[in-house]
Amino acid sequence: MMLRDSDPPHRQVEKLRRITDVLIDRIDRLEETRGSAWSMFQAAVALEQEVLARTRQLEQAMADLSQRNRELAVARAAAEEANRSKTRFLRAASHDLVQPLSAARLFLSALTDTPMDEQQKELTERLSGAFESVEQLMHAVLDISRLDSQRIEFHRQPVPLGELFRRLAAEFAPLAEAKGLRLSFAPTDAVVESDPVFLRRIAQNLVSNAIKYTNRGGVVVGVRRRGATGWLSVYDSGVGIPAVDRNRIFDEFQRLGNDNGTPGMGLGLSIVRRACNKLGHPISLSSEAMRGTLFRVGLPLIDGSHEHHPKASDASSHVLRGRVALVIENDHGMRRGYEMILAERLGMVARVTGGTAEALATMGEEPPDIILADYNLEGDDTGLASILALRDAAGRNVPAVVVTAHRDPEIARRCAAMGVPLLEKPVRPAELSEILVRLLS
Q1: 142 and 408 in contact (C-beta within 8 Å)?
Q2: Which one of 104, 210, 301, 347 has the fewest CB atoms closer than 10 angstroms to its CB?
Q3: Is the pLDDT of residue 313 over 90?
Q4: Where along the sequence do coiled-coil regions lie (predicted)?
């Protein structure tokens, strides 16, 4: 809209009014725009201040969290060091305690072979029971300590259950006979995958628990195949376990109220559950009051067969008689105990030495039939070093057994690599005899 000089005055006034209205409208819109931008600017400034405040709070929270994490790391390191110190102490203490206990067991076993009157027999039976209780308690404490450790190592390998059953039968037959119970192991050629040391400990605790809580009848141990799983089953005709107690019996120091003075600390089933959880072996329990209990442990089956190892009781007496056993043991009590068991009970020729150098000198040009070596000798000397030196001097792999009070996975791994059976202290004469027969048959 433009003004022209030719326009009449009223026309020019009308155009000026319209132009003025347009200018005023533009000015109003411009003011509104300026007001909106200012509000946005003020909001942005306020938001930036809020962000800065929240950032400072977040930085403070992160600093506090870092401090807490550092404190937690220090506390965790201290706890782990305390746990390692506890484990080292238990290992050292166990060796010092098991050594004389093992010697005492050998002497007691030799004593039972001598003529005794009724009172002396009762005393030896009570002594044997006391040693058994101490041994079980020590093993239980060490087992729980190892299973609670985060650094525990398992060595899964094929385990023939038939061989495990034979060792358990030799171990628990005297206990069952003392109570007038039948202890039966179903023959099996099943081979499973597990850690042989802890699988044996699981089975030992289940069988021992079954015998303790059975007053008449017996205990049956077997394996039932279900697909790829072999269920190790331990059935007893004992008092049974009430439904309300079937969860708590797996806790430490929990025993049934009707144990009637049965010895024990209530740790066996706690060890079973810990070991099964660590190994991934499912465990189940079924029981009926006054009619018995069935524990079942699921084990992965392995295809294939393993050679049959004869039982000590199946072997002829001449298998060990006259055979030469070279013993390497630095403890004088254990050395005398080995002499009595090997020579007087088993009819072997026992050559007892204290270390590798003495063993080499004793062997001379005539290698022994078998080597029985304690793992911990004087200084840096070990039973495995002795076996290697003797085998090298003999020019052949002389059969050997390592005996130890330390439950160290590294020792078990090295023994397995050398093909040497590992026997834990306290040494049971029946178990020692079985291993010797197996190696020399």
Answers
A1: no
A2: 347
A3: no
A4: 13-82
Express each pLDDT in 141-200 by its tens digit: 666 666 666 566 777 888 899 989 988 888 888 889 989 999 999 999 999 999 888 898
Per DSSP, the residues of 115-176 read: ---HHHHHHHHHHHHHHHHHHHHHHHHHHHHHHH-TT-----EEEEHHHHHHHHHHHHHHHH
At residue 352, φ and ψ (nearest 5 deg) are -100, 125
Among 290, 361, 286, smallest CA distance to 326 is for 361
Higher pLDDT, 234 or 248: 234
Measured in whole angstroms, the distance separating CA 170 from the mean position of its chain's CA atoms is 23
Taking only Cα atoms into account, the Rg of the chain, rounded to an integer number of angstroms, comes to: 39
Please state whether 379 falls in left (phi above 0), alpha (psi between -120 and 50) or beta.
Answer: left
Phi first, then psi, for residue 128 (nearest 5°) are: -60, -40
pTM reported for the whole predicted model? 0.54
Please name which of 93, 202, 206 lies closest in space to residue 142, comparing C-alpha atoms: 93
Q: How far is CA 169 from the centre of its chain?
A: 23
Amino acid at 124: T
Q: Tens digits of per-residue pLDDT, 84-125? A: 676 666 666 665 666 677 777 778 777 877 888 888 877 777
Give the tokens for residue 109.
């076993």
Looking at the DSSP bridge assignments, the partners of residue 185 are 221
Nearest CA among 358, 419, 350 for reference residue 384 = 419
Looking at residue 227, its amino acid is G
CB 207 within 8 A of CB 165: no
Helices (H), ranges, 161-316: 161-178, 196-212, 268-279
Quick one: CA dihedral 328, 333, 338, 343, positive or negative?
A: positive
CB 268 within 8 A of CB 202: no
The one-letter code for the residue type at 230 is G
Residue 19 token pair: 């132009």
Name beta bridge partners: 285.
295
Phi/psi at 324 (5° precision): -95, 125
- Nearest by Cα to 123 from 135, 114, 112, 134: 112
Q: Is 297 helix (H, G, I), strand (E, B) or coil?
A: strand
Q: Look at the block and give the residue holding tokens 């390592």.
A: 402
Both tokens of 277, joined, read: 């959880």
Terminal C-alpha separation, the chain: 127
